[in-house]
Amino acid sequence: MPTEDAQTSSKPTLDERLDVIRHTVANKMRLRAMPVVRECFAEFIGTAILIIFGCGVLAQVIVGDNGKGGHGDFMSISLGWGMAVMIGVFFSGGAGPGLINPAVTLAFAIVGKVKFYKVLPYTLSQLLGAFVGALLVLAIHYDGIVNLAERDNNGEYKLNHTGKIFVTMPAEGISNTACFVDQLFGTFLLASSALAITDKNNWHLPSYLHPFMIGMMIFTVVGAFGINAGAALNPARDLGPRLMIALCGWGTQSFTAYQYYFWIPIVGPYIGAIVGAIFYEMTIGIHLDEAGDPSLPKNFNDRVRSVIILIFSHTDSIGAQKNH
């Protein structure tokens, strides 16, 4: 007969029971049969994290020391946004693509890195994530924002005051045209650099380093091109928080201020990202030794490479026929 000690040792421990519960719950919640839903949820979380840390840094600087900026400066803002992107990509890059940017999503689809049917659900997830992230920042810093508005504007929420925590706008003396070019060029750099970092045929960079390198790239772009228009570089980063503040006290000025400036950090990044992605593929991507098998075109790289090879092979065959 088994002894009492043997019977006791055969009983599952508390940790073992908790493991069973955790695995059971995880298996029921896991979205194995719905990969697109899983990826969209990852994009939602990653973009929310981006805004929580990014707008959180701005709140720290603007609200800190009663608006005197004693809790940070432009350098801390640039670094904060770079790290915000890094952490957001870490969150979303395992279960999802780790894009957290609608403009980059569309640009990557155009060059064959993302399936086109996923662009719209990814974009909506990113926009919703940005909205929720901004709402959480408002909730955390609500008292400080209210106090600052009461001290400087008799309690009125003004876009060029407390609104700067959440959305971008032109700097004093900078035209909307200059801001549009700024956003286009900044996102051009972002998209082309992101492809240079993540292209497995370029540097063979381990995927676990991608978030860190992309974060450093964002830190550099914001530090170099943040003065004119705030370096939104991401339609969701600006539009999500802009929708939030429009519904939470700032009203229609969120969209009408600065001659309806709101469209610039949406359209500019889209154009810049598309041009940047195509620029990278045409100047670097299709020329890499391992860009793909030209006999089996699977994406933009391979299709373009196939066409180039076909043209030259056809030209060579014509020349050979003439020689005969």
Structure notes:
This protein is mainly α and 324 residues long. It has one domain: Glycerol uptake facilitator protein. It is 69% helix and 0% strand. The chain contains 13 helices and no strands. The chain has helices at residues 4-10, 14-29, 35-67, 74-92, 102-110, 119-140, 142-153, 176-198, 210-225, 235-247, 253-260, 264-283, 300-323. Helix 3 (35-67) runs antiparallel to helix 4 (74-92) and helix 5 runs parallel beside helix 12 (264-283). The longest helix has 33 residues, at 35-67. It is globular.
- The residue ranges in which pLDDT falls below 50 over 5 or more consecutive positions are none
CATH architecture type: Up-down Bundle
CATH-wise, what's the superfamily? Answer: Glycerol uptake facilitator protein
Mean pLDDT: 87
Order of helices and strands: HHHHHHHHHHHHH
The structural domain count equals: 1
Q: CATH class, please?
A: Mainly Alpha
Instruction: Give the total of beta strands.
Output: 0
Structural class by SSE content: mainly alpha
GO cellular component, one term: membrane
Subcellular location: Membrane
Transmembrane segments: 40-63, 83-111, 123-142, 209-233, 260-280
Family: Belongs to the MIP/aquaporin (TC 1.A.8) family.
Features:
Glycerol uptake facilitator protein, 324 residues, mainly alpha, 0% strand
Show the helix and strand layout.
Layout: H1 4-10, H2 14-29, H3 35-67, H4 74-92, H5 102-110, H6 119-140, H7 142-153, H8 176-198, H9 210-225, H10 235-247, H11 253-260, H12 264-283, H13 300-323
